[in-house]
Amino acid sequence: xxxxxxxxxxxxxxxxxxxxxxxxxxxxxxxxxxxxxxxxxxxxxxxxxxxxxxxxxxxxxxxxxxxxxxxxxxxxxxx
Length: 79
Hints:
Structural class: mainly alpha
Shape: rod-shaped
Distance between the termini: 88 Å
Radius of gyration: 30 Å
Helix content: 55-70%
Oligomer: single chain
Largest sheet: none
């Protein structure tokens, strides 16, 4: 016959220890990728779309009204 301590040890779930530092860093890193990935893709898609529309519209705007005539940089979406 087994004693009560051995029987309780077999029936109770194992005790989980607190996660280590590397486990938390990995979790934070993966969470950051999950958040930053879609944000980066969305910003890239917006930039690409605005540049594409800007290139379609630019030929119809007179040169004197284009921002690059007065600014040293080209800012997509301004003309």
